[in-house]
Amino acid sequence: MKTMNRRYAVLLSVFICQVYTMLAQDCPSKQDLQNSIHQVHKLLSAQEASYLQSLRTLRKKLSLLQDSVAGRPTKAKNSTCPDLDAPVNGRKLGKILFPGHEVHFLCDVGFELVGSETRQCKDSLSWSGQQPVCRDIDECFSAPCANRGTCADEVNGFSCVCATGWAGPTCQSPTPTFFVTVANQSPVSAGAASAFIRPSRCSLVQGTTHCTCEPGFTISGRDSSVCTDIDECKLFHNGPAGRLCLHACVNTAGGYRCSCPAGYSVTPDGRNCKDIDECSSRQNNCTREQLCINTYGGFQCATVECPPIRNATYVKTSPVRCERNPCPVDSRSCSQAPDSVSFHYMSVVSKLSAPRVMFRLSAVRITGDTLRFALLGGRGRRHFSVQRSDRQTGELLLTSPVQGPATLDAELEMTELDKRELLGRYITKITIFVSPYEF
After folding, report:
1. What b-and-e string marks burial along 152-171, b requiring 16 or more CB atoms within 10 Å of the CB?
2. Is 142 left (phi over 0), alpha (psi -120 to 50) or beta?
3. Burial class, 391, CB count within 10 angstroms (exposed 0-12 / middle 13-18 / buried 19+)
4. According to the model, what pLDDT value does residue 312 have?
5. CB 224 within 8 A of CB 200
6. Among candidates 33, 35, 37, 5, which has minimal Cα distance to 20?
7. Are 236 and 249 contacting, i.e. CB atoms less than 8 angstroms apart?
8. What is the pLDDT of residues 287-321, one digit of tens each?
9. How far apart are CA 390 and CA 382, in angstroms?
């Protein structure tokens, strides 16, 4: 085969040279001949691909016709693998049960997957792999409690029982003791006190009274018998060492606690906020037909539908992708409609730094000579632009920070051409949910 191709290349070179000679021009250089041959190869490859696709379609139709004439039973449409259950404390992704299709399994927060993460429906109408289970993660396995603290495993977390002299979610902070030395004073007795005022604890040592307070309290002025609460939020919340709490600080008797907005939970260190994944933990009201999109501080239910485009029809090939059905031979408007429309959803925090690449769109294989990327439109289009990272990849660029809450839309188009003739159009609709918070 290689010898035959080489022979054709030589014959083509001789033919081109003869044409130049007939035109009274010098025979082209070797480089020019190689470029011409390369262009012919590309043209033949494109024609060959189109021809093979037509043959595959014709062969499929002939097989169906032959089965119909011969009275052979066609493959039943309900020849599917048995439905699989989602594991307890987990969920299943994928609903198509035909051979060749896959289902995927995920576990809720606090659980780990044991078994096959992905199972494929085989031609024998049985599933590959083993049915997975979601096993509770032992958060105490890594010994998170410091300074001789005792760890107690809980669902989706743990708690520490601290030894004397230590405090904090992981027993990481020593408990301070405030004291004052008062001369020639008798011990005071504890009296009634409010939540933020406590009596001091005094003892007489060699004629001198020593008074101390509980952790989180300090001697109130000159009166050594009274301890008042230290307002850590007021003193330290915005100190030079940083904020005590990522979101809000609440003063308590003898200490403080951090609180987070709705949709967040306090992290084990007691100071930061972690987004709650309502989609994984099933804390959402999305229907089976909708996609649950986890956002920072909440969730969104997205309905993906194939676009109504004139003279073209689309079929849903995945939960987030629609592909165009084959066009009639004489329908130019159909052939110029997008070959596919994909949907992509993202969640970002408020005031995200810019410029920043948000999304990349690439061509797996290029058959034409030109690949173009363009931004078609959408809400918040002024915040975006399109740039190329290489010959096959276009990037959606966030050009300016966005104050949340907000929802931005962008349509990214990839067009493939050969000698200015359209080979294919591919549309990606990108939706970005911006959180009200910067975390």
Report:
1. eeeeeebbbebeeebbbbbb
2. alpha
3. exposed
4. 92
5. yes
6. 33
7. no
8. 989 999 999 999 999 999 998 988 899 999 999 99
9. 24
- Given a contact cutoff of 8 angstroms between Cβ atoms, the answer to whether 219 and 277 are in contact is no
The DSSP bridge pattern shows strands 298-302 and 291-295 to be: antiparallel
* CA 342 remoteness from chain centre: 16
Cα–Cα dist 361/372, whole Å:
11
Nearest to 13 by CA among 2, 32, 4: 32
Determine the pLDDT at residue 183.
40
- Is pLDDT larger for residue 365 or for residue 191? 365
162-173 confidence digits (pLDDT tens): 877 667 777 776
**Domains of the chain in sequence order:** 90-136 (2.10.70.10), 291-434 (2.60.40.3010)
d(CA 279, CA 92): 12
Question: Which string of DSSP letters, residue by residue, matches 171-203?
Answer: S-EEPP--EEEEES----------TTEEE-EEE
Closest CA to 320 of 281, 346, 355, 352: 346
> Hey, what's the torsion of the CAs at 243, 247, 248, 252, to 10 degrees?
-70
Q: In the predicted model, what is the mean pLDDT of residues 10-25?
A: 52
Residue 46 token pair: 């494109």
The residues that bridge with 360 in the sheet, in sequence order, are 395
Distance CA 356, CA 348 (A): 12
d(CA 110, CA 274): 14
State the Cα torsion 244-250-251-255 to the nearest 10°: -60
Q: Is 302 helix (H, G, I), strand (E, B) or coil?
A: strand
- Distance, in Å, from the CA atom of 247 to the CA atom of 296, rounded to the nearest integer, reads 14
Range 112-121, long-range pairs (CB < 8 A, 24+ positions)? 112/137, 113/87, 115/87, 119/84, 121/80, 121/81, 121/97
Indicate the SS3 state at residue 84.
Answer: coil
Instruction: Categorize the per-residue pLDDT at 42 as very low, low, confident or very high, splitting at 50, 70 and 90.
Output: low
Judge contact between 379 and 433, C-beta under 8 A: no
